[in-house]
Structures are given as structure tokens and as C-alpha cells.
Write a structure and sequence with these properties.
The complex is a heterodimer of chains A (173) and B (585). Chain A has 173 residues and is α+β, with helices and mostly antiparallel strands. Chain A is built from two helices and ten strands, in the order H-H-E-E-E-E-E-E-E-E-E-E. In chain A, strand 1 and strand 2 form a beta hairpin. The N and C termini of chain A lie far apart (70 Å). With 585 residues, chain B is mainly α. Chain B has a single domain, classed as Up-down Bundle (Cytochrome C Oxidase, Chain A). The chains are: A alpha+beta (173), B mainly alpha (585).
Chain lengths: 173, 585
């Protein structure tokens, strides 16, 4: 089969480009440690969340911020059309230490995105999204539900407020 | 020698199709040779164009609404309009446009009419009824007094629930397209009986590899809809697993992108070189490209689920690796498109390092539309590479970047190619000369400028974190900080771009309507369907390229590798668990 010389060169260059792209991603995962949302949060029956029977599940708690020995944990319920906590009162977390979010929903699929950052997860009924974030600086971040969840979708938003560790009140434990 | 060659590869010599000055055609146009097939292709295209008109109007309403430029609907109805836009353009315009194009391409390149009239009518009616059911259910959502709606967007993630007729309509559209594929395979079998040793003609090869890919991937959405969503919306089963149904959707949701693109590729490989004044570079590499798409299009769907809980990172990594290798056939296509255009221009006497670009027939809309679509696709390809990277994806997932990206791919690479090729093909399918040629010749540029404005702003808006799929430009507790430019300027560009795109759609539809209504039948056409032979034909390439059974088997094996264990994981804890009851949208 006859392949033109320029086609061969292009083919080779394309393969190099592809391998280089894969290299940067693997470097990102191994070097700076960019982690992904995965299955570590486990599953939960959506009706348990809907009924508020949080004591029945091991991998989720009453929504709120918890400062425990193994770090700060934030449990969030996303529902049509608010984040609890997050919408009526901001989620307060400390700067400079790992904060682990656990997010689930009793109704439909939602999104949880701190606008303009790579803190970004789908929130799917039956699944608990778990991801850890370290905020380097204090400040306010808007939470956007970025998956269509019904006719009031555009009203679903909230806030995360990052404070100095000394000002952090620790939430419940 | 040339004719013998022509019958083997589906390419014919130019001389056979020359039309004389006195208005007689020395050889007949497609509509004269295959009147039935031309009629079927015409019906498909008219339905595609009608959906395009409605979908484009919905697009204009959205662009003006979410930029707060002009509001004629309440924000709650925005999602009904958005569902209509996505379904009519992403599923109906595409599927019918492809059916029309493939029906022409397969018949033309094999030189054999479709074999079974009842089958043809069957799939055409099935697809049409499906479209009417789904579209009517969506539009019913605008009227409170009709007790049906389907405000679920074109991804219809459970447990948001649409009226059962929406799911039934969508299923019929897909099942109908399977029948169309069967029609084309039977046509091929008929051809094979009288051509036992010939290489598969190139266009027919492309049609069949695309359809094999389509069978493999649309199985996912068919199972999602028929096994889970229809019984669930009818109350026959009480709950479905949202993650499982969503995964089945994305099993289909990425390859569907290639189902949209491959017909454009068919045009780029087989027709564009001729329109540029030359011929295709290499037939074997075109075959390799389509085989790569058959193999790699489907085992990549998890790259739409990088941010999903419940799926292990390893599965996402496999999908990402496949996705990046899927760049290869598109990069090869980029080479062929540019090389074919340069070759064509040089054949016509243009020279220079870049001056040959001026030698291309930019005044002819069938050429300029395809060339501009190709340029846009290159930009879309680069933003797609960002989407495909697992970690960078987290910055832009579900932001307005994403529709910015796919308006370059399906919204331009596919849609503008379909419009451009229609300027060339519709005369051959109707026997009528193209009307309003002046309007047609500027239309691709209007679309191009509109898309440059809208898409660049959407990409930049995504970097600022502005979400997709929302009726409102502003949030109370969230501020969007632009990385490049300002949010206000982006909104203006989206509004102006969206308006220009709608204008481009209206111009195209005016040309098509004018051709249908005003063109005289049996006119002497200004175009002809002959396609010159490639510089390198298929005869030197290995025959294994034509072994579709082998490639299909490998494609199935790759899908099993990528999806077998993840799907088993999701099903093992209960097919319908963790489950959700329906929540009407």
C-alpha cells in the first residue's frame, strides 16, 4: 500500500502529539496529584436521604460541617432547588487544610461546581460524590448547580466561605 | 480502463457527465437514473430541513433569552425550548440528514437501486412517526392545557421524567434508522453478487462502517429507553438506577457524535476534492480512517462522566486513553482535507506557498461551506482535546464551554457541511437548478461569522465558570470572573452570533424552498455527480481493509473490554438499585 511521504510524517507527528497529551495528564495525576471523583463515596438509597434518616447510613451524615480528627468533612444534600447547607447559609471551611465534601441528592441529578475552579462534581441519586479540596486562600466561592434539574434550576446556587484556620469555628464534631 | 476502474471503486470519469450547451444531458442526473432512491433521499432532506427551521428558531429564542437581550418566554419555559432545540437539531436534523445523504451515496457508488421498497417505506415511516411523537410531546410542554410534556433536555437523565410518548418517539427514530442501515446492507449484497471480486466502492464502504458503528452504539440508548425508561414512565416498574441509565446514555452519547461527523467526513473525502478542482489523495487512508472510527468511537463514553461519582478512576482512564487515540483519524482527515484542497487549487493553476488558497472557488457555496466547516472543525477539535483530558475537564465540565465546543462540531462541521452539500446535491435529487444562487453564495460566510462570535464567547464564558443549560445570565450568590474579556461583552457576542446563525439558517431554507418551488423540473443542471478517481486507488492496499466482519468483531471486543466490568459493577448490586421513582419534569 502506497502512503505518501507527507502523510507518513503527519501520521508520526499525530501519534507523538497524542502520546504527549496522555503524558501531561498522567503527570498531572501522579505529580501535582489531581484526583478524580470516583466510587469511593459509596451508594445510598435516595429515599433514606429524602426521609432524613441519616442515622441509617454509615457513609453519610446529617448535612453540615464536621471538624473531626481525620480532617474537616462537609456533608451536603442537593435538592430541587437548593444546597443544604450552602444556599440559605454559606458553607464555612478553613483555608490551608484538606476539606472533604460528601454530596448526594434525594431527588434528581444535580451538579456541584465552585464557579471558575476545578471543584466540579455531578450529584447523582443513589451515589455519594466524595472529593477533597485544599483551599490555599480565604475568600468566597459561588456554588452553581450545573446540571438541569427542573424548571427552577437557574435558582439553585449557594456559597462556600473560606476563613483563616484561627477563625474557623469547627462546626459540629 | 478508466470505466472498468470506475465500476470497481465507485468513482467515475468526468467526461461521462458533461452537460452540453443546448440543454440536453449526455448522461442522466441521479434523479433520472434512480428516481425512487432520489425521492427517498429528498423526503429525508425535507424533514431534516423542516426540523432545522424550528430548531434554529428555538436557538435564537435561547440566545436572546439567556443573554437577557429579548425575553418572549418565562424562564421556566426556557427548558422546553432547549429540549426542542437539542432533540430537533441533535437527533432529528442529523438522523434524517444522514439518511438522505447515505441513501444517495450508497446508491450512487454501488450503482444499484435499493432492493426492497417496503423496507424503505417502513424505515422512513418509523423514523417520521417517531419524530412527530417526540417533537409534539416536547412542544406540548409550552401549553398548560395539554397534559403531556418532555422538559428533560436531549440527555433525558432519569429520574426527571418525560411523558411516555417522548421515549417511544425517540425509540422509533432510532429503530427506524436501523432499518435504513439494513436497506443499505441489502443493496450492497445485491451489488456483491455481480461483483464478487471487486473492492467495496469507497462511499459505500464509508456508509457501512458508519452504520456498523451506529448499530453497536445505539444499542446502549435503545436498552436504556426500551428496557428501563418506557416501562418506568408507564408505571410498569417503579424505579430505575440513575447512574446505570446515564451510563447507557453516554455509551451512545459520544459515538453519536461520530454518527454526525462521519457523513461530513464522507463528503470531505469523496466530494470536496472534486469541488476544489482536484481529486482525493489516498483511497486506502480514507478506509483506514473509517475503520479507526468503527473501532474507537464507542469505548470512550466514560469521558462524559469524568465528574460522576460511582465510577472508578481506572475506567475513566481507559476511556481517556481511547479518546486520545481517536484523535488520530481526525488528524489524518485534517491532512487529507487540506492536501486535497491544495492539490485541487494547484491543478487549476494556482501556486505559491499560501497563495493557492486564493485559487479555490470561494464563490461557490458548496465549496466554501465545506471549507469553512473544516476550518471550524479544527478549532472544535482543539477544544475537544481539552474536554478529553481528565483533569482539565474538571474546569469546564457542564459549563457553557461545552455547548461552545459542540456548536463547532455538530453545529458547524456537520450542519454547515450538510447545507453546503445540499447546494450541490439537491439539484441532482430534484432535477431542478439551484435558485437564489447569490443568496446561497454568501450564506456559508454568514454562518461562519455567527459561529465565530457565539462560540468564542461561550468557550471563554466556560472558563469563567458560567454554567450551560441555564435560563439566567446572573446568579445572586455567584460572581463569574472572566479570564479573557468581560462577561458583558461575551453576552453581546452570543446574542449577535446567535442572531446571525438564525439568519444563516433562514437564508439556507429560502434557497432550498425556492429551488423546490420555483425550479423547473428536468432543468439542465449546473452541477454533476461525477467524482474523479483518487491519486492512489484501493488496488494496492491490503484486502483486509474491506473485511467488515473482522473490524466489527474487534470493535465489539474493545467495547466489552471498556464496558464489561463497569456495567457489571453497576448491575451487580441490583439492576434497579440504587433506584429512583419518577419525578415529572
Amino acid at each position: 500500500m502506497h502512503v505518501h511521504r507527507f502523510e507518513k510524517l503527519w501520521f508520526g507527528a499525530s501519534l507523538v502529539l497524542i502520546v504527549a497529551f496522555l503524558g501531561t495528564i498522567i503527570y498531572g495525576a501522579v505529580g501535582p496529584g489531581v484526583a478524580m471523583v470516583d466510587d469511593s463515596g459509596g451508594t445510598v438509597e435516595p429515599s433514606v436521604i429524602a426521609d432524613g434518616n441519616y442515622e441509617q447510613v454509615e457513609n453519610f451524615r446529617e448535612p453540615g460541617v464536621y471538624d473531626t480528627d481525620d480532617g474537616v468533612n462537609v456533608y451536603v444534600v442537593a435538592r430541587q432547588y437548593l444546597f443544604q447547607p450552602g444556599s440559605s447559609e454559606p458553607i464555612e471551611v478553613p483555608a490551608g487544610e484538606p476539606v472533604t465534601f460528601h454530596v448526594t441528592t434525594p431527588d434528581v441529578t444535580h451538579g456541584f461546581n465552585l464557579a471558575g475552579t476545578n471543584v466540579n462534581s455531578m450529584v447523582i441519586p443513589g451515589q455519594i460524590a466524595e472529593f477533597t479540596v485544599t483551599f490555599d486562600e480565604t475568600g468566597e466561592y459561588g456554588i452553581v448547580c450545573h446540571e438541569y434539574c427542573g424548571s427552577g434550576h437557574h435558582t439553585m446556587e449557594g456559597q462556600v466561605v473560606v476563613v483563616e484556620q484561627s477563625e474557623f469555628e469547627g462546626g459540629d464534631s | 480502463m478508466a470505466t472498468e476502474h470506475g465500476s470497481e471503486t465507485g468513482f467515475e470519469t468526468e467526461q461521462e457527465y458533461v452537460e452540453t450547451d443546448d440543454g440536453t444531458r449526455r448522461k442522466l442526473a441521479f434523479v433520472d437514473r434512480f428516481p425512487e432512491a432520489a425521492r427517498t433521499a429528498r423526503i429525508c432532506l425535507w424533514i431534516a430541513f423542516a426540523s432545522f427551521g424550528v430548531g434554529a428558531l428555538f436557538g435564537l429564542i435561547q440566545a436572546l433569552h439567556r443573554t437577557n437581550t429579548l425575553r418572549i418566554i418565562p424562564s421556566a419555559d426556557y427548558y422546553t425550548i432547549l429540549t426542542g432545540h437539542g432533540v430537533l437539531l441533535g437527533l432529528v436534523l442529523t438522523t434524517f440528514g444522514i439518511a438522505g445523504l447515505f441513501h444517495w451515496a450508497n446508491t450512487r457508488s454501488l450503482g444499484v437501486a435499493p432492493t426492497n421498497k417496503r423496507l424503505t417505506q417502513g424505515w422512513l415511516w418509523t423514523m417520521t412517526i417517531g419524530t412527530v411523537l417526540a417533537a409534539a410531546t416536547i412542544i406540548a410542554g409550552l401549553f398548560d392545557w395539554i397534559p403531556a410534556s418532555a422538559d428533560v433536555l436531549y440527555t433525558f437523565y432519569a429520574p426527571l421524567e418525560a411523558h411516555p410518548l417522548f421515549y417511544i418517539g425517540a425509540a422509533l427514530l432510532i429503530v427506524g434508522s436501523w432499518g435504513a442501515g439494513l436497506d443499505w446492507f441489502l443493496q450492497f449484497r445485491e451489488w456483491r453478487e455481480s461483483n464478487p471480486d471487486s473492492r467495496i466502492p469507497l462511499q459505500s464502504f464509508m456508509v457501512m462502517t458508519t452504520m456498523l458503528m451506529w448499530y453497536l452504539c445505539s444499542l446502549g440508548v435503545a436498552i436504556e429507553v426500551v428496557v428501563f425508561l418506557i416501562p418506568w414512565s408507564l408505571g410498569l416498574i417503579s424505579q430505575v438506577d440513575p447512574l446505570l441509565t446515564r451510563t447507557l446514555f453516554w455509551y451512545f452519547g459520544h459515538p453519536v457524535v461520530y454518527f454526525w461527523l462521519l457523513p461530513a467526513y464522507l463528503v470531505w473525502y469523496t466530494v470536496l476534492p472534486k469541488l476544489a478542482g482536484g481529486r482525493l489523495f489516498s483511497d486506502p487512508l480514507a478506509r483506514v480512517t473509517f475503520i479507526l472510527f468503527l473501532l474507537l468511537s464507542t469505548p470512550v463514553g466514560f469521558h462524559h462522566q469524568y465528574t460522576d461519582p460511582g465510577i472508578a478512576s481506572g475506567y475513566k482512564l481507559v476511556a481517556m486513553t481511547n479518546t486520545f487515540f481517536l484523535l488520530l483519524p481526525s488528524l489524518l482527515t485534517l491532512f487529507t482535507v487540506v492536501a486535497s484542497m491544495e492539490h485541487g487549487a494547484r491543478q487549476q493553476g494556482a501556486g505559491g506557498r499560501l497563495a493557492w488558497l486564493k485559487g479555490l472557488p470561494w464563490e461557490r457555496p458548496e465549496f466554501s461551506g465545506i471549507a469553512l466547516a473544516g476550518i471550524m472543525f479544527a478549532a472544535g477539535g482543539f477544544s475537544g482535546m481539552i474536554n478529553a483530558g481528565m483533569n482539565i475537564n474538571y474546569l469546564i465540565h457542564n459549563t457553557i464551554w461545552v455547548p461552545g465546543h459542540f456548536h463547532l462540531t455538530v453545529g458547524t462541521a456537520y450542519a454547515l457541511t450538510l447545507m453546503a452539500i445540499s447546494y450541490w446535491l439537491v439539484p441532482q435529487l430534484t432535477g431542478k437548478r439551484l435558485q437564489f444562487r447569490g443568496l446561497a453564495s454568501i450564506q456559508p460566510f454568514v454562518w461562519f461569522v455567527g459561529m465565530v462570535l457565539m462560540s468564542n464567547a461561550m468557550h471563554r464564558g466556560g472558563l469563567a465558570g458560567i454554567p450551560r443549560r441555564t435560563a439566567e445570565p446572573q446568579y445572586e450568590q455567584v460572581s463569574f470572573d472572566a479570564v479573557v474579556g468581560t462577561v458583558g461583552e461575551m453576552r453581546i457576542q452570543i446574542a449577535i452570533g446567535g442572531t446571525l446563525l438564525f439568519l444563516g439558517a433562514v437564508m439556507f431554507l429560502a434557497v432550498m424552498f425556492g429551488t423546490w418551488a420555483l425550479g423547473k423540473p428536468n432543468s439542465q443542471l449546473r452541477v454533476n455527480g461525477s467524482i474523479p478517481e483518487p491519486l492512489s486507488g484501493p488496488e494496492e492496499s491490503p484486502r483486509v481493509l474491506d473485511n467488515l466482519k473482522l473490524w466489527t468483531a474487534i470493535a465489539v471486543a474493545l467495547v466489552l473490554l471498556a464496558y464489561g466490568i463497569p456495567l457489571y459493577d453497576m448491575v451487580a448490586d441490583g439492576l434497579l438499585w440504587p433506584g429512583s421513582l419518577p419525578i415529572p419534569a
